[in-house]
Amino acid sequence: MKADDHFHLGLVTTDMAATVAALSAALGYEWGDQLGNIVQVTGPSGVDDVELACVFSITEPRLEVVRAVPGTLWEPVAGGGVHHLGYWSDDVTADIAELVGHGWQVEATREMPDGALFFAFLQKPGGFRIELVDRRAEPSMRRCWQAPAER
CA–CA separation, 68 vs 88, rounded Å? Predict the structure, then answer.
């Protein structure tokens, strides 16, 4: 993992439409299509189905606005602010091990059909979160931050 692998800042909000509108009005952000699905994630309490919804900015620096899911790690940061830093990973399992060795704690993971990890969220106690996303997903995820007319 390296700084060059950073690809987005994640914001979690209870009102996606208002957050997107505010960022558009104040900073000129433009957005891809909203995505949503029920995904199976593994966390400290086991496996859960979580209904996630998000939208990525077309504008850079890239933002991901995620709809809050009460009772999960996808809750707004107290007082507002960045929820997570997203990084591409060539080996999510190895990068998890490295971060855990530096005091980070795994909050949730999601597997791909082949059993490899698609994403992982880790948090430094008292600090911020990092999301690791398998780099093999990059080509398909790039569609998330294209203008609808470009798809």
Answer: 23
